[in-house]
Amino acid sequence: MATAAFHQAIGTSQIHRFGDHLTSHDGLRNLSRCSGIEMPLLRKNWRSSHLKMRVIHTLKSTSSRIDPILSSLQINPDNSLKNSNESALILIRHGESMWNAKNLFTGCVDVPLTKKGVEEAIEAGKKISNIPIDMIYTSGLVRSQMTAMLALTQHCCKKVPIVMHNESEQARVWSQIYSEYTKQQSIPVFKAWQLNERMYGDLQGFNKQETAEVYGKDQVHKWRRSYYVQPPNGESLEMCLQRAVTFFKEQIEPQLWARNHVMVVAHANSLRSIIMYLDKLTPQEVIDLELSTGIPMLYIYKEGQFIRRGSPAGPTEAGVYAYSPPMVKLHVNATMHAKGKDVMGLCRTSLLALSLAIYRQKFDEMLL
After folding, report:
1. What's the rounded mean pLDDT across residues 174-195?
2. Is 207 left (phi over 0), alpha (psi -120 to 50) or beta?
């Protein structure tokens, strides 16, 4: 009842197109260097060999094929990601909030980031700075929105994130951008309450440790991590999943299918819900799924399937995805020779496609 009332009060956001440029990736192709990998998903008592086998099983069907992006670039440097059947999905849990720092149940209370949270958001931005982004989805809460905006300040596309205001006709008209050039230099940001943190009901504002001392650690663990158990007057993870995954399927997945690259910045439980859907986790497996603040997770969407690629390392971190300057220079020269004066956009487009292909190839090699 409390959840329904909360949802009704917030209202349902409507997602609209940001002009016609969402179907085009022109201007979004940037020189990319793929680096190492972290695994922000920490499953307690989870055997690494079992996890490895699950990922390998997912990748077997694609790792033996010739990479469509890489092979197309070798044949024709003019091709880009928009001509491939892949798109990138980036998931980020917001940086540390002021109530995270105080160890309080936050839920749907709208709390901003701490200084550490700001730093985490900026660091996350550095880690994804060379991964293509066409649009961003955030929750309706400011900590999610702050993280998205701060992360994008580090992106090498240098585009401006623009929050879409479609809550009313007047808001839509008043926030309209009329310059087509400016639209092309912008990235639309869509806010959605469906991506909000799960509503913790009567626990919101209470200290987690003190609550555990009153109700017992086992009970608090069930409230926080169980799939079915609801906190008093709050949402269970199952209820959170229903709204978050429904929104993901209806609004975000079609964009990925249309070959748009999407970044989603949300919360521990809304992202746990989405990852449960992407990785096909069971209610028992999701209990031990933990997400760190400010750590990006990359998925590749291909032919209706999601392939988890882990977390790209930052630009200062050594990793298996760095490719050699001679290889880059060779591809740049080929593109320049092919297209003459329209060089920079084409180079960035082709190199970004190349880097994403190498990212996939090296990850597969590391697992096999």
Report:
1. 96
2. beta
pLDDT value at residue 287: 86
- Cα–Cα distance for residue pair 176/171, rounded to 1 Å: 9
Q: So what's the pLDDT on residue 85? A: 83
Phi then psi for residue 91, to 5 deg, are -115, 130
- The whole-model pTM stands at 0.68
Is 167 marked active-site? no
Of 197, 235, 253, 331, which residue is the catalytic one? 197
Catalytic residue among 21, 25, 94, 155: 94
Distant-in-sequence, close-in-space partners of 261: CB < 8 Å, separation ≥ 6: 25, 28, 81, 87, 88, 89, 90, 131, 132, 133, 134, 135
For residue 313, name the pLDDT band (cuts at 50, 70, 90).
Answer: low
- What is the band of 288 on the pLDDT scale with cuts at 50, 70, 90? confident
Q: Are 132 and 351 in contact (CB under 8 A)?
A: no
Cα–Cα dist 66/69, whole Å: 9
- φ and ψ at 45, to 5 degrees? 60, 25
Give the model's pLDDT for residue 84: 63
- pLDDT above 70 (res 331): no
Q: What is the 3-state secondary structure (H, E, C) of 214-260?
A: HHCHHHHHHHHHCCCCCCCCCCCHHHHHHHHHHHHHHHHHHHHHCCC
* pLDDT above 50 (res 71): no
267 is catalytic: no
SS3 120: helix
